[in-house]
Write a structure and sequence with these properties.
This protein is α+β, with helices and mostly antiparallel strands. It folds into 2 domains: 5-67; 79-158, Glutaredoxin (3-Layer(aba) Sandwich), CATH 3.40.30.10. It contains 7 helices and 4 strands, in the order ααααβααβββα. The chain has helices at 5-21, 28-39, 46-54, 58-67, 87-91, 94-105, 147-158, and strands at residues 79-84, 118-123, 135-137, 140-142.
Length: 168
């Protein structure tokens, strides 16, 4: 298999990140953080390199990545939308909201829209129970969310009109 310059460049970056931190005690987590910071996710082709350099199995590396919700093995959208699935939000209609949002975006949890704009994720409490159902986009939490409000928000996100500090 022939590697493109982009693929080789990515492999070189991964190798450099590993080399810079591999002698640290507990080096795997700092390395994973650095790789994700560099690429926005952890490329799957990093796993065999990590395993070899850290003398672990790919299964062990994968186990750590899959344990921590912060780490991702696929490219993420420009925006991550988290839908609260806590009990208070469920009682106030978050199940119907999640179905409407999934239908509108054409993705389910853990997936990214085709235009790479939105990645959809579940979250089990946003601490905004009094204003449920709630969603979070980036650092901004939106309470009393409806399918109609989300449609407006997603349109604004798609054309970068929204400042995440504004209210809908």
């Amino acid at each position: 298999m022939t590697r493109t310059n982009g693929q080789q460049s990515s492999l070189d970056k991964i190798a450099t990140i590993i080399e810079n931190k591999r002698t640290l005690p507990g080096a795997l987590l700092p390395i994973l953080h650095d790789i994700q910071h560099e690429f926005g996710y952890i490329p799957k082709n990093a796993l065999p390199i990590l395993a070899k350099q850290l003398q672990q199995t790919e299964a062990e590396i994968y186990g750590v990545i899959s344990f921590y919700a912060h780490f991702h093995l696929s490219e993420r959208g420009r925006h991550t939308v988290e839908i609260c699935r806590g009990e208070a939000c469920q009682a106030m209609g978050s199940r119907q909201l999640e179905q409407a949002i999934q239908g509108q975006l054409g993705v389910t949890y853990g997936q990214t829209t085709e235009d790479k704009n939105i990645t959809l994720e579940p979250v089990y409490c946003l601490g905004n129970c009094a204003c449920s159902p709630s969603i979070k986009v980036g650092d901004k939490t939106y309470g009393r969310m409806t399918a109609e409000k989300f449609m407006q928000l997603s349109q604004e996100l798609s054309v970068y009109k929204v400042s995440l500090g504004e209210e809908l």
